[in-house]
Structures are given as structure tokens and as C-alpha cells.
Design a protein that fits this description.
By secondary structure, this protein is an alpha+beta fold. The chain is built from eleven helices and twelve strands.
Length: 279
């Protein structure tokens, strides 16, 4: 089903038409969303387009605007203060941002949350819910977000408001600290399983494993430091969760090992994101 069969011609001069054209000019694929709602119609993935002529000719007045994140090459991080009212501040701290902005194209949502637009990494990511933190979802391949210029009324959740651009910066690459968490596919074992697995580990074996993972971090080069730090921090978190290593000591030692050769803002957030997998 194409636009010609699905939609009537747009009313000339309708103000929301520009809200559909603006993201399409960026190369983002847009589609109509039900008026005053966040729900798309059927087959929204097939209807998504960046063809300006098609959008201008067939857009219906009053429709909200959706962006198909997959074909648009976007990974959008959704911060929802209804789940965690401190989530915006938490993310600023997690990314070690000092100026109260995220350094990328940002939209304030109808519920006063944030949509942070990032470039997809070389291996595109899909959608996630709560993997990074409570109140933090992501939309990538197979997902969509409501675009700036839309207006949503939610009677069930008792909020209404516009989606507005609050930072028109260029779309930034996805920060490594977020990518590490989203790409992590290793097993997250229960406390009982970890306890059984490490039950017979003695002091000598623990010391060997601890020293080896710290040395791996020290030996990492600039291109692999972040990935190595995250992976080894996950192993350290396993030891902490099994009761073999004090968490504060572990995190301090991991940070010190990383800073022996490198000093960049992502060290502490990377360690924290690894430990969160085992919280």
C-alpha cells in the first residue's frame, strides 16, 4: 500500500506539513502518526519515506509525524521521567556532560522527557527497554519515534504537550559507554548461579583472575581500551556479585588500571555500565 492509496492530498499551507518535510530533508524516513497520538497506522514501515514530493503531495492535515529510525540510520535514546524522575540528570552524569546538554540533536517530548538522536554504529542496533537504566529505552532498527512538531494528548496517562527541538546540534556518534551496554549480549547470571560457580575459588585463584583482568586493561591500546575496559569490568562485577571482591575496591582498581595509560571522560561511566549488568 502506497501513499497515493492511503492518504488524501495535503491542504496547501498546512503548518504541520513542514514538520514532516524538515526531518525528510535530513534524510530521515517519515510517516503519518494518528492525530494527537503516538500510534502509527498499519504498515507504517512500508509508508516511511524521505521523498519530499510524496510527502508534500499526500500528507493529511493534522497528522503527527513519525520517524522510522532504522532506515534513517538513527539510534534514539528515550529518557522517560515518568519511570524515573531523575533520569535526565542521571544520563547527564553517566555521559559526563558538564553543560546540561547532550551534545546532539535533542527533542523534548510531550511528557517532558528527552529523545537523544545518535548515529547508528557500524553494526546497527535494534530497540531496547530498560537495558541502560530504568526509564531509558532506545529505538533503532525496527523502531520509530514521534518527531518534533507533533502534539500528543494522553488521557490515560494524564499528560499532553508538543514535541519540540531543544538542541538543534548535528546528530552525534553514539557514545561508547552507551554502545557497550547495548551491544553486550553475554549471560547475566543469577546470584545463586554465580555463587555455585565461584564456590570453590580460593584466594590464589581469585588473585590471579583479578590481576589478569587489571593487566588486560593496562595493556589495551587506544582503539580497544573502551571495549576491553567494559568486558573486564563485567568479569570484575561477577566476582563482586559472588562476594569475592569489595565493589568499591574493585571499581577503584579498575579505574586506576585504565588511567595508567589513558585519561578520557568515559572511564567511570564504562565501569558503572558494566556493573549495572550484574546489579
Amino acid at each position: 500500500m502506497g501513499y497515493r492509496n492511503a492518504y488524501k492530498p495535503a491542504t496547501p499551507g498546512h503548518p504541520c506539513l513542514e514538520d514532516a518535510l524538515a526531518p525528510a530533508r535530513r534524510g530521515w524516513f517519515v510517516f503519518p502518526v494518528i492525530k494527537n497520538d503516538k500510534m502509527p497506522g498499519l504498515q507504517w514501515g512500508e509508508l516511511a519515506t524521505d521523498d519530499l514530493d510524496v510527502i508534500e503531495q499526500y500528507w493529511i492535515p493534522g497528522d503527527n509525524v513519525g520517524i522510522a529510525t532504522g532506515p534513517s540510520g538513527l539510534l534514539v535514546v528515550d529518557l522517560d521521567p515518568r519511570t524515573d524522575n531523575k533520569v535526565i540528570g542521571w544520563m547527564l552524569d553517566f555521559l559526563e556532560r558538564d553543560d546540561e546538554t547532550f551534545g546532539t540533536y535533542t527533542v523534548e517530548t510531550a511528557s517532558l522527557g528527552r529523545h537523544l538522536y545518535y548515529q547508528q554504529p557500524s553494526t546497527p542496533l535494534g530497540n531496547s527497554a530498560g537495558k541502560i537504566h530504568d526509564g531509558v529505552d532506545t529505538r533503532g532498527v525496527g523502531g520509530f519515534v514521534v518527531a518534533a512538531g507533533s502534539y500528543v494528548v494522553s488521557y490515560q496517562k494524564n499528560y499532553s504537550g508538543p514535541y519540540s527541538v531543544i538542541d538543534d546540534s548535528p546528530v552525534a556518534p553514539l557514545p561508547d559507554v552507551l554502545r557497550n551496554v547495548l551491544e553486550y549480549t553475554g549471560p547475566v547470571e543469577s546470584a545463586a548461579v554465580r555463587t555455585r560457580r565461584y564456590r570453590h575459588m580460593g584466594t590464589r585463584e581469585f588473585t590471579r583472575r583479578r590481576d589478569q583482568l587489571l593487566q588486560d586493561i593496562r595493556d589495551a591500546d587506544a582503539g580497544t581500551l573502551n571495549t576491553t575496559l567494559f568486558a573486564r569490568s563485567c568479569r570484575a562485577a561477577e566476582l563482586v556479585a559472588a562476594g569475592l571482591w569489595d565493589q568499591g575496591e574493585a571499581m577503584d582498581m579498575l579505574e586506576a588500571a585504565a588511567r595508567e595509560n589513558w585519561d578520557y571522560p568515559g572511564i567511570v561511566p564504562t565501569i558503572l555500565s558494566a556493573f549495572r549488568q550484574y546489579a
